[in-house]
């Protein structure tokens, strides 16, 4: 390493850069209110700072509010903590578009400084970050539109999950590496994690409906691993609550509604997977243990089917798969990639 490079590494971080790093760290840990209060307080303190800094702080405060609405999924009309749909707030698209326009103004201010030949390092940094945040707000808008599309499809009898996967992958490809600045790394990581989990769950839906055991299992496992990594962010975060008669206590921060919804989607797919491949899975363990495991799924399809048989004295409950047009179908269960028959399947 050269002497100049060493001096760069040892150079103190500018105050504004430290503030930005702290803000996006809080945003990446889903502390939206704390992040918003932080930049608003800094804006009041830094009234004498340049206009580009004040404009960016105002945009960041609105971004934190937009992120809170996005992660609580209020743009779908559901009140936080409730199950009813009484009213819709302003469209999330309108909210992010407003933030986008504010960031565009910051970019314009930075370009004016550059054209005048007086743009210092800070203004270049703020302009560069604003450009990448513009891409982020556009990505958020498209993913929010995607969730609204999923909601609209919820009441349909059949949903083409392949099309949903293709749409989501195109959004991911479109914005890949569009907001890659190290200061934005926490935010980029959370965005990537969310979209990866959703992709894996939708792929799992496709594989289960095609009765492909191993691909569905791998998708479920990948989604579970990523959700576990996401949950660790909440476990590291502690909330301090003051009691009415003095004293205080700390508890883990509650995950946003988006995470809870993805977790429930994974649980419903696990229940479906366990039911569709019950015969294959039951060969790997004892009957009593298999019954206990399926009872933990929600809903417990196997338990409901068993109850229906006992209640109505039915001979059986059949799940029929129409394999016409599926030339690669080899039967349920695990298949070695190079074998043309199931490892534990008999015709």
Would you write up a description of this structure?
The protein has helices spanning 3-10, 15-28, 32-45, 51-71, 92-115, 121-153, 161-175, 185-209, 213-236, 257-276, 278-282, 287-295, 301-312, and strands spanning 238-242, 248-252. The N and C termini lie far apart (67 Å). Residues 4-11, 78-89 and 340-347 have low confidence and may be disordered. By secondary structure, the protein is mostly helical. α4 packs antiparallel against α5, α4 runs parallel beside α6 and α6 runs antiparallel to α7. Strands 1-2 form a two-stranded antiparallel sheet.
Main β-sheet, in a few words?
2 strands, antiparallel
User: Helical proportion?
Assistant: 55-70%
- Order of strands across the widest beta sheet? 1-2
Q: Enumerate how many helices there are, as a single number.
A: 13
Number of strands: 2
- Low-confidence stretches are 4-11, 78-89, 340-347
């Amino acid at each position: 390493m050269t002497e100049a490079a060493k001096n760069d590494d040892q150079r103190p971080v500018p105050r504004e850069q430290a503030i930005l790093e702290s803000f996006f760290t809080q945003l990446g840990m889903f502390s939206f209110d704390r992040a918003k209060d932080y930049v608003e307080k800094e804006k009041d303190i830094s009234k004498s700072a340049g206009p580009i800094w004040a404009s960016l702080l105002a945009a960041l405060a609105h971004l934190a509010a937009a992120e809170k609405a996005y992660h609580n999924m209020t743009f779908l009309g559901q009140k936080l903590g409730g199950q009813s749909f009484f009213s819709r707030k302003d469209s999330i698209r309108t909210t992010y578009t407003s933030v986008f326009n504010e960031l565009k103004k910051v970019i314009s201010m930075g370009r004016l400084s550059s054209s005048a030949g007086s743009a210092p390092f800070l203004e270049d940094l703020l302009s560069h970050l604003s450009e990448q945040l513009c891409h982020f707000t556009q990505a958020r808008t498209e993913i929010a539109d995607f969730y609204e599309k999923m909601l609209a499809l919820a009441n349909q009898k059949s949903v083409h999950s392949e099309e949903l996967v293709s749409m989501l992958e195109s959004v991911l490809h479109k914005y890949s590496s569009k907001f890659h600045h190290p200061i934005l790394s926490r935010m980029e990581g959370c965005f990537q994690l969310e979209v990866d989990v959703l992709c894996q769950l939708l792929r799992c839906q496709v594989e289960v409906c095609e009765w492909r055991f191993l691909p569905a299992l791998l998708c479920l496992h990948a989604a579970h691993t990523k959700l576990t990594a996401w949950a660790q962010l909440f476990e590291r975060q502690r909330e301090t609550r003051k009691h009415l008669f003095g004293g205080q206590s700390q508890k883990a921060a509650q995950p946003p509604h988006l995470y809870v919804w993805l977790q429930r989607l994974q649980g419903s797919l696990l229940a479906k997977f366990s039911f569709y491949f019950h015969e294959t899975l039951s060969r790997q363990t004892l009957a009593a243990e298999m019954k206990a495991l399926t009872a933990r799924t929600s809903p417990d399809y196997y338990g409901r089917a068993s109850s229906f048989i006992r209640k109505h004295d039915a001979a059986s409950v059949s799940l029929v798969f129409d394999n016409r047009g599926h030339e690669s179908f080899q039967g349920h269960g695990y298949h070695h990639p190079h074998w043309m028959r199931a490892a534990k399947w008999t015709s």
